[in-house]
Amino acid sequence: MQATAEIAAEFVKLCQQGEFDAAGERFWSDDIVSVEPMEGEMAVLHGRAAVKAKGEWWYANHTIHATEAHGPYVNGDQFAVRFLMDLTAKASGQRMQVEEIGLYTVRDGKIVEERFLFHMG
Amino acid sequence: MQATAEIAAEFVKLCQQGEFDAAGERFWSDDIVSVEPMEGEMAVLHGRAAVKAKGEWWYANHTIHATEAHGPYVNGDQFAVRFLMDLTAKASGQRMQVEEIGLYTVRDGKIVEERFLFHMG
């Protein structure tokens, strides 16, 4: 079983290569809980299938021009990654630069929770 | 009672002005828990007095050349701040640039937990 710092380093490396799906496939627990900073039915998702479906919806509805992943930042069984995304929402055509922090909790070598904090500064 | 996003914005503003003590005085709960990413007796501290004493120890043992605070990043009752610090440890004379994320949990308008994640990237 890998230590949190090792998992964090591998996870960030995959994200830096744009391999977000591979990062999830490799490290999500079957029971992963995903918490987004919004109200509504997508705010909390339970399980790999639901989280994967969210990702597919997201990619289908946005054009990604560029991404950056910085980190990891580590404390105990948690690590954080800072994401910068340059994207266009297909529905509105609006291009935006988004910054967020992904906060990940690890148990038994897998990510059991991901939580996204959106930049408001 | 202030919403998390408002507290987060005020907290970051004070930190950007270098007013870290004032930020703590204003927003720490009496029961605050502080979690640092290290082993040892300072790793988890309970209560305002203990957290304040840690801060005093820290300032007494480091010379701060510059600090930056970026954010906040917000999700529900939690917010994060990214800190950059240029400092010299007085004991060793070693100057270093440190990056960390402070993750704060708010309850009843006060910060009940602070947790620091150190940059390892």
UniProtKB/TrEMBL annotation, chains A, B:
Coiled-coil ranges from the UniProt annotation: none
Name of the protein: Nuclear transport factor 2 family protein
Highest taxon of source: Bacteria
Record Pfam families: SnoaL_5
SnoaL-like domain residues: 3-118
InterPro entries assigned: NTF2-like_dom_sf, SnoaL_5
